[in-house]
TrEMBL record:
GO terms classed as biological process: pyrimidine nucleotide biosynthetic process
UniProt cofactor(s): [2Fe-2S] cluster
CDD domains documented for this protein: DHOD_e_trans_like1 (cd06219)
Record protein name field: Ferredoxin-NADP reductase
FAD-binding FR-type domain boundaries: 1-95
Keywords: 2Fe-2S, Iron, Iron-sulfur, Metal-binding
Cofactor note: Binds 1 [2Fe-2S] cluster per subunit.
Tree of life domain: Bacteria
Pfam families: DHODB_Fe-S_bind (PF10418)
PANTHER family linked: DIHYDROOROTATE DEHYDROGENASE B (NAD(+)), ELECTRON TRANSFER SUBUNIT (PTHR43513), DIHYDROOROTATE DEHYDROGENASE B (NAD(+)), ELECTRON TRANSFER SUBUNIT-RELATED (PTHR43513:SF3)
Chain ranges passing through the membrane: none
GO terms for MF: 2 iron, 2 sulfur cluster binding; flavin adenine dinucleotide binding; metal ion binding; oxidoreductase activity
Length: 285
């Protein structure tokens, strides 16, 4: 059992949970994830390890409650426990000293970006972080990212914080400035956002790494559910990723696979208690 030591709300339906998991905390590297199984018979949820403290024996997870299983996880009170957490899984991020690096986070992708940006800064890179969201309440971890980023730039769709527009608008401005153009870009967030970033950087030949979130069951390469097409090869995000060259990813296929269970999800949603169903619907809007 894995005890919940802290459970904070960062944004609407976004929680930061600190969980006692000493073996995972000791082995974890940036870019890796865990599979959380909150209770017997429950769904297995893959979540990026946002941070870890090997001395305290804890890991930090950032979770957006968008379905019955994630709601169950974030509603676990401090002092209670989650049944199973398996990890660390996936390949660690390949950290190099590129010089000038831009990290782009959209929505909850900002939380996934946190350990990566931190590791890039610790390796001696000049890190500029761009984070985006629908509006000010959905911008998370700006102060935390600012602690090791040379600059944090914010874009919101409604202009309530930072500049109005999308993260790609801000990234284009950096690329257009000769003294600010990055040698590498890391993008994590909704699939359309990552696709847009990859297409933006492609003509300039800027190395672009994305972190993919396909449907995943066991996280060890056994089920094949997380297969993605990268170049001419089929890869499993759980063991070959989750990070890949954004210029080689078949984003169209990825989006098709992510929509495979849309009808099943709708059926499950219809069978939930009304209060829980309305809460999920509100989050998805």
């Amino acid at each position: 059992m894995f005890e919940v030591l802290q459970n904070d709300i960062l944004a609407p339906n976004v929680h930061r949970m600190v969980i006692r998991a000493p073996r995972i905390a000791k082995a974890r590297q940036p870019g890796q994830f865990v599979i959380v199984h909150p209770e017997a018979g429950g769904e297995r949820i893959p979540l990026t390890i946002g941070d870890a403290d090997p001395q305290a024996g804890t890991i930090t997870l950032f979770i957006q409650a968008v379905g019955a299983s994630t709601l169950k996880i974030v509603n676990t009170p401090v002092g209670s426990s989650l049944r199973d957490i398996a990890g660390p899984l996936g390949k660690a991020t390949e950290i190099e000293q590129w010089g000038r690096v831009v990290c782009v986070g959209g929505g909850l992708g900002t939380a996934v970006l946190y350990p990566l940006a931190k590791a890039l800064a610790e390796a001696g890179n000049e890190v500029t972080t761009i984070i985006g969201g629908r509006s000010k309440p959905f911008i998370i971890l700006a102060d935390e990212l600012g602690a090791f980023s040379n600059e944090v730039l914010v874009a919101t769709e409604d202009g309530s914080l930072g500049r109005q527009g999308f993260v790609t608008h801000v990234l284009q401005e950096l690329i257009d400035a000769p003294d600010r153009r990055p040698a590498a870009v890391f993008a994590i967030g909704p699939v359309p956002m990552m696709r847009a970033v990859a297409e933006l950087t492609r003509p300039y030949g800027i190395k672009t790494i994305v972190s993919l979130n396909p449907i995943m069951i066991d996280g060890t390469g056994m089920c094949g559910g997380c297969r993605v097409k990268v170049g001419d090869e089929t890869k499993f995000a759980c063991v070959d990723g989750p990070e890949f060259d954004g210029h080689l990813v078949d984003f169209g296929l990825l989006m098709d696979r992510l929509s495979m269970y849309r009808d099943t999800e709708a059926k499950i949603l219809a069978e939930l208690p009304e209060e829980l169903r309305e809460k999920i619907i509100k989050v998805k809007r």
